[in-house]
Amino acid sequence: MGVLDGKVALVSGSGRGIGKSIALKLAAAGANVVVNDLDEDVARATAGEIEKLGVHAVVCVGDVTNPDFGTKFVAAAVDAFGTIDIIINNAGYAWDAVLQNTSDEQWAAMIDVHLTAPFRILRAAQPVIAAAAKAEIAEHGRATRRTVVNISSVAGLGGNPGQSGYAAGKAGIVGLTKTVMKEWGRYNVTVNAVAFGAIMTRMTAGEAGSSTINVKGKDIKAGVSQEILEAMEKGIPLGRAGTPDEAAGAVFLFCLPEADYITGQVLVAGGGWSL
Questions:
Q1: C-alpha to C-alpha distance for 183 and 190, rounded to whole angstroms
Q2: Rounded CA separation 50/125 (Å)
């Protein structure tokens, strides 16, 4: 018996990287998962891995920044499983430039993916969660505990040169987390955030200048130089960058029954590193 048996989890950006690790960790604990990615093949591959763990997965392909994505994402969960128990707002990427070189397009892209998209997903989920909670209270006197985990960053807590848009979005998600925590407490929903430090994903692992990711047809520079990575790791008390599985572990903590009375918190998963 898994600690999350029968739970239904939505994990945005879960086709690869940290999101995939989160989805697999939740599935290994018994949760059914709605997998999201821009790339259908990647999303279906992750869903296949989840199914091999003995639970169910459905795929919701799409761009989280589309205005109707939140409604689509929530509907995928309700249509397949009838409810929602866990929401992980993970999808995101960095598009860096110093302030004077940051275009309006870059700024808007960072705010859209890191703040507006989670807002829309949560807004779309509210009627489903509220209805379920009210029905449970009427029948049992108390609603089942549900949970939201939003992904922030140490850049959102302390800023980072070259990341004005990214840092602003990641700071904003903390404010959204604390507000929704206060609004949804009456439904017995815990709402927390995890702020990642240096985690080795495709955004950081590639060599700077030669590595890119493609977002909506646009190639975005990714990766950091070996020199910068070594300097970052020297500032991390644990002496190294984290892995996607370690990042997922921090998110998983908030989904456990032991976290039933923890809400409105920001957990830094950064090996002791802060900006």
A1: 10
A2: 23
Structure-derived torsion over alpha carbons of residues 123, 124, 130, 132, reported in degrees to the nearest 10: -150
pTM over 0.70: yes
Q: Helices 164-184 and 117-140, interaxial angle, to 10°?
A: 10
Model confidence at 211, in pLDDT bands (50, 70, 90)? low
Active site residue 187: no
Which tokens hold the place of 176? 């959204």
CA distance 176 to 209: 34
* Strand-pair category, 146-153 with 189-196: parallel
CA distances to 24, 70, 77, 122, 159 from 181, in Å: 26, 19, 22, 11, 24
Q: Which fold has domain 8-197+241-269?
A: Rossmann fold (3.40.50)
